[in-house]
Structure formats: structure tokens, C-alpha cells
Amino acid sequence: METDTDTISSRISPTCPPETQRVLTAAWSHDLTAVKKLLDTPGRASVQDPTTGETPLHAAIRACGPAPEAEGGEEEEEGLADLEAAKKVVYELLLWGGIWNDVDDRNETPGCVARRLGRGELYNLCVEAGVRAEMLFGLMGGYEELESVDGEDEEEDEEGEGGVEVVDMDVENPEMVVVGEDGEEAPELVGGEVNGKGGSVETVPAEGEEGLEAEQEEEEEDVEEPRFKRPKEDTEADVNFEAYLRSKLTYTDGKLVDDDGNGVMMAWETDIMRRSVNALLPGKQPGKRILNIGFGMGIIDTMFAETQPAVHHVIEAHPGVWEHISSPGSKFGSAWEESAPKPGAFKIHKGKWQEVCQQLVLQGQTYDAIYFDTFGEDYSQLRMFFTELIPSLLDGQGRFGFFNGLGADRAICYDVYTKVAELHLTDAGLDVDWDVIDVDMSHLAEAGKGEWEGVKRRYWTLDKYRLPTCTFLG
User: Fold this and answer.
1) Which residue in 64, 37, 47, 61 sits closest to 13, CA to CA?
2) Is beta strand 311-316 parallel, antiparallel or unpaired with respect to 289-293?
3) Which of 78, 98, 118 is at the close of a domain?
4) Which GO cellular component terms, listed alphabetically, does the Swiss-Prot or TrEMBL entry include (predicted)?
5) Which of 102, 118, 234, 376 has the fewest other C-beta atoms within 10 Å?
6) Is residue 462 part of a domain?
7) What is the pTM (predicted TM-score) of this model?
8) Domain around 64
């Protein structure tokens, strides 16, 4: 829906520098010729109004206004012509350095604006740009961590069950590489572990054709140089995995939080866990071999145990969780381990999964179902798990799943990382089936209220969840 503040006078402030104002105005007018002439200096495509945070990408998309209902006639034809002009300008801006996930003063990315206005084609261009940027930077050998923010609620698009359709991209096509200048602002993606809780989903705008070589040299010289400033409303530090392991955990009714108030696991995830078990163990046949990484509150392990598995291994790194597991009344203490059909079949492995999994591989352990739900780790760790360890740990007919909270602070980030994860899973020899399920947002809609009471960050804001079930290709 367009607001009375979606006007050129409200988005390009009187104090905006003349050069920035010219680029923004040309983008708003969808004047491709003027835009091309102005993009003669590095960084011009990603300039921002100092007051509103408006970028040329924001301006080009916002100027289209809300998508009208098809009524035919000259008015519709004019709207289609303007949309085509906008697409060409957006494409050009992305080619020359427009950042797909830059935020304005309302914490909206260009894609967020396109989604709000119902401009699906422009939204898809932003998603494609995000995927290209993530894939290219991944090929360059690294990711840049971005921290969690509590994004604005976004309604799921009405086109299909999973939101706006994301058009497949060709990573070999050099013409749509997203360009980015060091130091430019970008919104941070909610990610925990890799699951959207506590940690970071990594992202960075990739350099364009002329900047790619320089970027690689720069990475070699100083890999620690920061690329983004934090969004204005988020000044808190990232949840670091090592710091998390040193933190004190508190189990309360319906949630597990660390001593900084970060939600490690919460009861609202129960339905997602139940559906994950159903997907990983169709028919819940007994006698299966199960590996779960990340015990937390024990929600999914309780469900796994009810299927009467032949092998049930759990990897947990936090000493506070070990203490909870060993406490009186725990379902997974020493008595549970001793009840196994054979020695070692039921076991809590204490330590980091990166180390424990190597031991399991050496032991020749394989599993029918593997689930991954850790905390405070970034996406690169999940990618490493399914690239380097799944081939050795998962039975040829087995199934793998993970808590998919990648970029779950806003729809565009979730769409980008769904596609990125799918591409990386395919590269690892895995096929992924996405089951789109509803999330009851009645108690999750507001930060600090409902399920989020007492929790510092709202790591989930979407009303749809894409549940992944992975199997080997072929």
C-alpha cells in the first residue's frame, strides 16, 4: 500500500547533496539515459539521501506506486510502459552498484518497498540480485557476517504458497552481478546458528566486473575490513558462538534464553519440529537411526524418541544444556542412555558438532534421519555441514532437515536465502523439497510481547515457514 510519505518531495530531502539529488531524481523519473550518464563514478548507484536513506533503487521502485488492478485501456498501457521503464532502470542500477539489501530510514530495502507496493517483477529483480551477490561472494571464498535486526512485519505475497516466485538465475551471466562499495549500509539478516536464532546469516554485495579483481586483492590484504554499518535501530552486538558457549542459560516456561536475553529455543517452534519429524521419518517407522545436532529444550528429541529408534544420537555443545539434561526428571539422562537396545545406541555427545561429527564419521556411523538446529552460528557452518559431512553421515536413502530461519527478519532475505541454500544443497548432491506451512503470528507479531516477552530479539517475523527435506539426488 502506498502512503502519503511515498512521494518524491518526502523521500528526497532539501538537504540532499546536489549530485545525490540528481541521481535520485533520474531514478525516480525512470530516465534511463540520464541514469546511465550519471553512473560515471564508482558508488553513484548506491548513494543515499542523508536524511531519508533513499537510494536510487528505492526511488526507481517507489516511483511506480502500488500495482493497480488490471482494468484495461490507456491507463493500464501507460502503467505497463512505466513498469518496463522502471525495470530497465533497476537493472542498470544493480549492474552499476545498487545494493539489493540497503535500508532506508524506515528499515525497508528496495525489495521491501516493491513487495509492499505489490510490484512482483521489481521484487524478483531484487531477489535475483541478492542471490547473485551471495553466490558470487561464496565462490570468492567467504561470507561477511551481518547481525540480527527486528525487521518490519511483512505479509506473504498472494502469488503461490511460498510467496513471490523467485526466478532462477544464471551465475555465469556477468551482466547482472551486483556491485557494492565498501562501507555502504545494508540491513542485517536474522540468522541464528544458521537457523535464524542468535547468529548471523552472512551476506555481502559482490563487486561488479570492474571491481571483482580489486575485491579479491582487497580480501587477501585485509579480510577483517568491515563492509556494512549496522541499521540505525540495531546497535547491539552479534551473538558470537564462543560467547554463547560461555553464557548462562535459563530454562523458563516455553523458552530457553541466554544471559543476554537471546532466544535459543522457544515453544512456538513445536509445530515446526513436529512437521520436521514427520518429513524426516515418514510413517514414523520404529528402528530408525537418528542424529540431532542441537538439543536446546529437547522438543524434537522428545518426538524422535517416541518413534522408538534403534539409534538416537544427540550432539550438544553448551555446558548449561548438559546440566539440564542430567537434572532430575530429565528424559535424556543416564537412564535413557542405559535403556538403549545396545550399548552406545542412545547417547548425548558433549561437544561441538564440528569435532563430534568427525569422530562419528571415523566410527562409520550412518543415519536414516539427521536434523540440524544449532545456535549462534552463521550460514557458512550449515553449508559446511551439508557439503562436507552429510555425504558421510547420511544413509543413501536417508533424509536431512534443518531449522530454516535463514534471513527470517524480512521476506526478501528469506527468499534470497531459500534460493541460495537450494543452490548450495544441489551443489552438495542433495535434492530439497520445500513444504510451505503456516506460522501462527497471533503471539509473534510484536517484539517484546506475546511469545517474545523477555526475549531481546524477534528472530522470526514471517507467517510462512519453508520446511526443507533433503535427500540425495538420483
Assistant:
1) 47
2) parallel
3) 98
4) cytoplasm; nucleus
5) 234
6) yes
7) 0.80
8) 7-98
